[in-house]
Design goal:
alpha/beta, six-stranded mixed β-sheet, five-stranded parallel β-sheet, binds 6-O-phosphono-alpha-D-glucopyranose
Length: 526
């Protein structure tokens, strides 16, 4: 890679102390010019989206996450007011929690239990990892982000004896996601077991009038914050979903919003060569041939950014992973995203990146400031941070030598401002890429299939229980039970459900081990 190419393809944005380097992507000299009409079109589509167009046609919704950091852009005065009122309410609420004006049964709130999943968890988890300072923050944060009983037990064990000083934030845009509802019910049980009322320790972030919203009202929760239908779950970090936990954790939400607003301004620029989000989308298109041929490996060389790739997995894959394009053609689009952090990953899978199957392009994220204050020398003249940068630069070169391309993003630090910038950058790059490949980046029809199938297994579980309970003491193999229920095509599912029920203590269901395994029998104790 020549210095000339670097100079040509290094975009430095002084106001943000931000740089995007695409020089290690080996696109042909005329690539950008050839793509100009397409990316210009994507920039126009984004302008329409920001103006309030129905950019999510299947769900007939506007897509307004950009208004969250600049309410003046919202298309109606009512929306502008709702956005700024919500922000003020979050700040006022956090101030009252921090001052102790609102407190739990045992005093000032010291812990935060965030209950949510997907877009209602990944942003807060990422931001907490990036900005949290457990010894200084006004509240210690914990998460229920699944319906795994043991996972919840682990968190509850940390909160033992502290629930009277714990504030639960239950977040669900739809207000009906089963994992989140289960987490809430388990939390309610835990508070009740501790002899405490849950309501005075709980807050909801949800759509107005949702099941969760109604439940929070009925149970006298402390307050509710709105989630609007024009904010998608995966772009909700700068809505109440992310701002409530961030403000409660003592993070500077104004700086986060400002960082996003400033990145929005520079990614709104019409000249795509000066627009980092447009250039990123073009690089993704180049790397993957516009059909997802290569995976996106995210390598931030900073521990605090470790969860960024997990956050981006949802943002990128749920937005772009689509069966149909906007004209109804079958396209099976998407880009797979993975990564953790450098240099740690270098000791795990970078071997394959350098020498193995060439099915990826990397994005290095470089953070200039090593730490607050001075660093000791770990060798005569070098700090740990010098090593970390050396490893980034060395790995990048080692990959490039073998024809493995990469993008490099450089930021000054990991601050609330930078986090806002990074979120806004990727949100817009995903939007542009969605336009380039002509998919609706704002819906997620595929997620429903798994949810429906999961719900139907609960019905089947009930049918099994009813059948076994009707004949207590009588033992059945999965095959026998399936034919008894007239559901032979579901024998495997019935087997799996029986195995799970027999392994858990809630029901008097016993397994008599058979050989081969499918001769095992199950019975309800008399
Ligand atoms: O916030 P909720 O409505 O509970 O949704 C949580 C998550 O659930 C779904 O599976 C969607 O695919 C995600 O986009 C969403 O973030």
């Amino acid at each position: 890679m020549s210095w000339d190419r670097f100079k040509q393809h290094y975009l430095f944005i002084e106001t943000l102390d931000f740089a995007l380097d695409i020089s290690r992507m080996d696109f042909a000299d005329d690539y950008l010019e050839v793509m100009k009409p397409k990316i210009d079109q994507a920039i126009i589509a984004m302008e329409e989206l920001e103006g309030g167009a129905i950019a999510n046609p299947d769900e007939n919704r506007m897509v307004g996450h950009y208004w969250l950091r600049d309410a003046s852009l919202a298309p109606t005065p009512e929306l502008k007011k709702e956005i700024s009122d919500c922000e003020s309410a979050i700040k006022a609420f956090a101030a009252k929690i921090h001052s102790g004006e609102i407190k739990g049964s045992d005093g000032k709130f010291e812990h935060l239990l965030c209950i949510g999943i997907g877009g209602s968890a990944l942003g807060p988890e990422f931001v907490n990892q990036a900005l949290g300072n457990p010894t200084n923050d006004p509240m210690t944060i914990h998460f229920f982000d699944n319906t795994d009983p043991n996972g919840m037990d682990k968190v509850l064990a940390q909160l033992k004896g502290k629930l009277g000083k714990t504030l639960a934030v239950v977040t669900s845009k739809s207000g009906g996601t089963p994992e989140t509802r289960n987490g809430m019910v388990e939390a309610e049980n835990a508070w009740t077991k501790a002899g405490l009322k849950f309501g005075p320790h709980a807050v909801a972030v949800t759509g107005l009038g949702s099941k969760l919203d109604k439940h929070a009202v009925a149970e006298g929760w402390l307050t509710r914050f709105p989630m609007w239908d024009w904010v998608g779950g995966r772009t909700s970090e700068l809505a109440a979903v992310g701002l409530v936990p961030a403000a409660l954790s003592g993070f500077d939400i104004d700086a986060m919003l400002k960082g996003a607003k400033e990145m929005d301004a520079v990614t709104r620029v019409k000249d795509f060569r000066q627009n980092p989000a447009a250039l990123m989308a073009l690089m993704w298109f180049y790397a993957t041939d516009g059909v997802g041929k290569k995976d996106m490996v995210i390598l931030p060389y900073k521990d605090r950014l470790e969860l960024f790739s997990r956050y981006l997995q949802q943002l990128v894959m749920e937005s772009l992973g689509k069966e149909l394009d906007l004209d109804g053609n079958t396209v099976h689009q998407g880009i797979a995203v993975y990564g953790n952090k450098g240099s740690t990953d270098q000791h795990a899978y970078v071997q394959q990146l350098r020498d193995g199957v060439l099915n990826f392009f990397a994005t290095f994220i470089e953070v200039h400031t090593d730490r607050a204050g001075e660093s000791p020398f770990v060798e005569e003249k070098f700090t740990s941070g010098d090593f970390l940068q050396g490893l980034l630069l060395g790995t990048r070169d080692a990959l490039y030598e073998k024809g493995r391309e990469s993008i490099t993003i450089s930021v000054r630090d990991v601050s609330a401002h930078t986090i806002g910038m990074l979120i806004a950058l990727y949100e817009r790059a995903v939007g542009f890429y969605g336009s380039l490949v002509n998919v609706n980046a704002y819906h997620q029809p595929g997620v429903e299939a798994g949810k429906k199938a999961a719900a139907s297994t609960l019905e089947l579980r009930q049918q099994i229980l009813d059948a076994l309970s009707a004949k207590p003491g009588e033992a059945f193999t999965a095959e026998q039970l399936a034919s008894e229920l007239g559901l032979v095509s579901k024998t495997e599912l019935i087997f799996k459900l029986l195995e799970h029920m027999a392994a858990n203590q809630n029901r008097p269901l016993r397994k008599l081990i058979g050989d081969p395994f499918y001769e095992s029998k199950y019975l309800m104790e008399q």
